[in-house]
Fold these 2 entries.
Entry 1:
Amino acid sequence: MAVRITHIAPKIVPVPTYKVQAHLTIENFKWINEQSLESGLSSRTTMFDWIVNKKGQAYIKVGDTIISVFGAVSPTGQQYIRCIKGNQWSDELLDLPLVN
């Protein structure tokens, strides 16, 4: 099962300049399974576990472009998720709308 992450919460504004720290500020992710139309809200810990340990797949859409999301671990050992675009870590996740 793959889910599309549609929103993030909360997002500190302005976004910290250190990108790992910026991703660590995201506490929850709103998502939808576009095949089943199931949706939900998952914590950073739950989403990381689902992607890394349960081999789930997550992505975001920017226009018509699909960007994959993977688990990452900060230098201090904190788990978070982040996009990979063009074989490099990218920050499109930070541009998603906030959860209402």
Entry 2:
Amino acid sequence: MSKTILRLVRLDPEVLFDKESMALYLKKELDLPAWFGGNLDALADVLSEISEETAFVVEITSLPAFYAEGRPKKALKVISRAAQENPHLHLYFEGLF
């Protein structure tokens, strides 16, 4: 049985590059609580509590930016781990095939 994705979040390394832009973008896209300040621990916490089908999509052409050291790489790791642990989260790579 396939799941209906209720929320689609496109991940751009430029948006995740600093704490402030990441917090603003994810607050808007995920309707996060006001207390979410954008640090990676808080991101892991809020992702663990998501209960509606949510898909994160990474464009394959942006992968090199995610693999470089820095905040985008760390954020993608947090999101990937959360998608493994929370059955309502999904991580897709667009443009593979």
